[in-house]
Amino acid sequence: MEIDIGINKDDRAAIANGLSRLLADSYTLYLTTHNFHWNVTGPMFNTLHLMFEAQYNELALAVDLIAERIRALGFPAPGTYKEFQKLTSMSEPEGVPSATDMIKLLVQGQEAVVRTARSVAPLADKVSDEPTLDLLTQRMQVHEKNAWMLRSLLES
């Protein structure tokens, strides 16, 4: 059955493509954060272990919301590492970084997700796609706050 939500197919496709990039960035950040949760060591272990856990749990819920929005727009959501690797703007770290480097990498990851979300917003705004705009706004708020909190740990 054809989708008739007041947004034409080409515009829905452009938005879904942007959301697919957001999904890939979010999943890559999820995986990196979970990795760091498992492997962090040092004097800030407990603080970072718990912070990383809260962040990856939030991301696990977020990727579902993003994928479901892509589906609501009428397109398949990417769901494999291979697809995510092609779509993401992020790279995965090699080895096990120090706790300080983990924080820096996660700041960069949080900010990458914000940039990707921000790049999709004009597409959604152009066609008054308020549900996507709402999702993007919420994602940017979460990731900007997370980046700020992580950056705060780096200050002396």
Automatic annotation (TrEMBL):
CDD domains: DPS. It holds the Pfam family Ferritin. GO terms for molecular function: ferric iron binding; oxidoreductase activity, acting on metal ions. Residues 18-155 form the Ferritin/DPS domain. It comes from the Bacteria. InterPro entries: DPS_DNA-bd, DPS_DNA-bd_CS, Ferritin-like, Ferritin-like_SF, Ferritin_DPS_dom. Belongs to the Dps family. This is DNA starvation/stationary phase protection protein.
